[in-house]
Design a protein that fits this description.
By secondary structure, this protein is α+β, with helices and mostly antiparallel strands. It has a 5-stranded mixed beta sheet with strand order 1-2-3-5-4, covered by helices on one side. Helix 6 packs across helix 9. It is elongated.
Amino acid sequence: MAVALAAFASVRAPSGGWFLGVAIIGLASGVAVRRVRPSAVFVGQSVMAAGAVLVGVPGDAVVIAVALALYPVASGVRAWPAAAAVGGASAAVFVPGFMTVVVPGLPVVAAPPGEESFASTPLSSLGYGVVVIGGSWALGRVLRARRADAEQLARLREQRAVGEERLRIGRDVHDILGHSLSVIAMKAAVAEHLAADRPEEGHAALSAIAQVSREALDDVRTVLTALREVDDTRAGLDDLPRLVANAEAAGLSVTLEQDGHRQVPASVQASAYRILQEALTNAVRYAAPRECTLSLVQSAGALVVTATNPATRTWHSEGYGLLGVRERVTAHGGSMSAGGAADGRFVLRATLPLSTARRP
């Protein structure tokens, strides 16, 4: 572009001394390096443009050189510096051009015989300069606005990702500690009741408390590790037997029914595990008699997770646990229902699609 501008100016310029060649080379060099130091190049280009017009460089070439230097400035600075820049560019071009018209003896470049120029008259020169310089400034401002919008969108996406990650961590901590602390509280009550009359059973209850506490601590460490590692190891369907054993240690009778859950994405397995963990936590707290049936069925491109247990009270609203379950299911684009059935049992059912691991 710089070479083309130099050639264009040289062809249209009248024969002159070395200063004319220096002016053309200076303008072309400014165009070549305008993106390295936009502001400094623009100031230098404006000064050279004023001198170039006075020594006879064609005005249309000067306008193009200044417009090319103005564009990166207009696209990279705030509004008032950009407005000052377009004012300076206009002054650098139009004031010397006006002087060539009104001051006798200054060179005036006319179009070669038989050619028409956009800047062959003072009026057309003014219009040409306004269009080219104004267009360069406008394009630069549009580019800056689009870049600012893109940066704002990126920040919003980042904030959304942080918020979603915070919710995920909150759900994991609630599910882990809620389940484990429920088992610990239940076994502690049993140990206290049996400590005097049946010390062996009381000792077994205390051993169960110690085991569940260690497992809860390991799970919390896993969640905290996920804050530092992208590819964290999450609980999956293969860990369900341990989950069931912990619930049974708290006195809950659990029936686990599994059918065709192979090749389930890891994120779906993790969500299914946490959903069943929440179901068992609620069953330990509220079920009477103390029993719960868990079911996992893979069909029609989805994993259907169901938990059923007798309910001792009517479920009118969702607590934090069921709210976390709903958020997990929604993140996968699935569906969920939770409430009392006609036979008085509480049923939690979640459908997790397998086609997408997790929506963005």
